[in-house]
Design brief:
single chain; mainly beta; Lipocalin; ten-stranded antiparallel barrel; globular
Length: about 160
C-alpha cells in the first residue's frame, strides 16, 4: 500500500508541476483589453492588435501582414495608418479608440481615404471585448458608413500582456 500511495503522490505532484508550468508558459494573464492580440487568417495572413491604457483612455495600434509576410497595413504612429498593395500605399487610414458610458467594451472608429482615383472611402466602428478570462479578444463590426451593421466576429488570441512594437 505504501508504494501505491507514493506512486499516486508522485503522479499528482508531477501533474501539478506540469499544470503550473503550462499556466506560466503562456506569459499572459487577465489584463482586460490591454495587451498584444494576434489573429491568423485561414489564408496565412496575420493581424496584430495592441491596446494600451493611459489613465481612463485607451490607445489602439494595428498591423496586418499578407500570407507572404508583406506588411499590408502599417501604423507607424497611433491612429495614423496606411493600407498597402505591394510597396504602394492605397488608403490612408485613421483609427480612434473610445469608450461608451455603461459598456465595458472598447470601440474603435476607422476612416479610410483612397489615395488614388480608384476605391471608395471607408468608415466603420468596431466593438472590442475581452473574453475567456482575458486571453481572447472578440472584434465585431457594428457600424458601416454611418448605418448599423453586424458583421461576423473575429477572434484574437492574447500573445502578450505587454504592447511593445
Amino acid at each position: 500500500m505504501k508504494g501505491g500511495v507514493r506512486t499516486l503522490g508522485r503522479v499528482i505532484g508531477t501533474a501539478a508541476l506540469a499544470a503550473a508550468a503550462g499556466c506560466g508558459s503562456t506569459g499572459v494573464s487577465d489584463t482586460g483589453l490591454v495587451g498584444t492580440w494576434v489573429r491568423e487568417s485561414r489564408a496565412g495572413g496575420r493581424s496584430i492588435i495592441r491596446i494600451q491604457k493611459e489613465d481612463e483612455s485607451y490607445r489602439f495600434f494595428v498591423d496586418r501582414y499578407a500570407p507572404d509576410g508583406a506588411h499590408v497595413l502599417r501604423c507607424p504612429q497611433e491612429g495614423a495608418c496606411a493600407l498597402y498593395d505591394g510597396d504602394a500605399p492605397t488608403y490612408e487610414m485613421a483609427f480612434r479608440a473610445f469608450s461608451r458610458p455603461g459598456s465595458e467594451a472598447l470601440f474603435v472608429a476607422c476612416r479610410g481615404r483612397p489615395l488614388s482615383g480608384g476605391g471608395t472611402p471607408i468608415q466603420y466602428v468596431s466593438e472590442i471585448t475581452a473574453e475567456s478570462g482575458g486571453v481572447e479578444l472578440t472584434v465585431r463590426r457594428i457600424e458601416l458608413n454611418g448605418s448599423p451593421h453586424r458583421e461576423g466576429e473575429r477572434r484574437y488570441r492574447k500573445e502578450s500582456d505587454g504592447t511593445r512594437r
